[in-house]
Amino acid sequence: MSATTAERVPMFSSFGIRNYRLFWTGGFISNIGTWMARIAQDWLVLTVLTANSAVALGLTTALQFLPIAVLAPYAGSLADRFSKRKVLMITQAALAVTGLLLAGLVIGGVVELWHVYLLATVQGIAAAFDGPARQAMAPEMVSEQLIPNAVGLNTTSFHAARLVGPAVAGLSIAWWGVGPALLFNGFSFIAVLVALAMMDEGELTPSPRAKAKGSIMAGLRYVKSRPDIMMLMFLVFMLGTFGLNFQITNALMATSVFHVGADSYGVLSSIMACGSLAAGLVAARRTELRLRLIMAALAAFAVSCLLLAVAPGYLWYAVLLVPAGFASLTVMTAANASVQLSTTPVMRGRVMALYQAIFLGGTPLGAPLIGWVGDVWGPRWTVAIGGIMCGIAVAVAVAYVVRQSGWDVMPWRNHRPDAVLVEDFEDAR
């Protein structure tokens, strides 16, 4: 699991590569639209189409992520068999069409809840094939040494957009309504399509193409043979399923606990993005990736969630979102880069597809559950559950590493004073 180089690389090293610059720029513009759409869609479901129904909001989120879990093996196989650039051009075009269609329904005043459910499902299908190709394409644009840097900068793009998108969406909704925010999202995908079209294919280093026959099962067998990757997938599953439901928890806390409007709700996502952006910039310089870093960050996230659950007011809640964003982003970037670095190139698309399915595919399970908890136990419990479950995940990971290392957690029982805890999973295998 460790990827070590002699020293840290400059923070923006990958920007020296033209293809990566184009990829990052197009993604940044698209990510702004994506975050605007997330806020707008959640506000549409929560306040326009329902009377603050957490269940409806959770179901919308679940439908958007369910295809990722179902289609992941096929999406990964496709990414390993065909040009990732061409796959991305198709998926980005599909996302643009669905985004513009939802915007048209809202602006036309004819949108209904079932429209949102249907389009969320279609977007989920497109995203299922988009994610593995996008994740596996980064190593084709940069050298192996720069993979953590590229992953960190990709994450920075996502969360820099998260600073801008929700705040702009909140103001846009307050001034003009939901439609314009959704419209910008639909058009933002054009930036990615232009960036992909302008790339120099001769400067890409494509991974070896996988054979069609048995490629899906080969990916599953590969992951099964890698306990280090399986442990990472378990940790991000717990984070994604129970911890990263802030599109639900922030909306419920904003409307039902703090009683603020759309503009203040949008600001919450932007504030959380401050911590995430800082973590992304730190990750861009990091070349050493250890399991202890991931476990410590997940533990910090768990504590942050528990503090968020008892926040006495809007301001305290907003401030505590910063460390929560920093910790969660550290887990995501470190785990993502670790998996990519440790996976053989010919298997990378399939492994990243499974990684995405585990990380995002758990949302169809977690989002409705969190929505139900919000309706039955109250909004504060939606945040607390995430902290509790992520804390359990850390405990399981520590116990597993301890077991693999042969260290006795109760040395007094066997009188083993010389026991020591290993710092890296690689050492424990």
In short:
It contains 17 helices and no strands.
CATH architecture: Up-down Bundle
Strand content: under 5%
Measured between the Cα atoms of the first and last residue, the distance is: 10 Å
Classified by CATH, the class is Mainly Alpha
User: In sequence order, what are the helices and strands, one letter per element?
Assistant: HHHHHHHHHHHHHHHHH
Determine the mean pLDDT. 80
Radius of gyration: 21 Å
**What is the general shape?**
globular
CATH fold-level assignment: Growth Hormone, Chain: A
Number of helices: 17
Q: Which keywords apply here?
A:
Growth Hormone, Chain: A, 429 residues, 0% strand, 79% helix, disordered C terminus
Sequence-ordered SSE layout with sheet pairings:
Elements: H1 18-49, H2 54-81, H3 84-107, H4 113-141, H5 147-176, H6 178-198, H7 215-224, H8 227-243, H9 246-257, H10 262-285, H11 291-309, H12 314-342, H13 348-361, H14 363-376, H15 379-405, H16 411-414, H17 425-428
Helix pairs in contact: 1-4, 1-5, 1-6, 2-4, 2-7, 2-13, 2-14, 3-4, 3-6, 4-13, 5-6, 5-10, 5-12, 8-11, 8-12, 8-13, 8-15, 9-10, 9-15, 10-12, 11-12, 11-15, 14-15
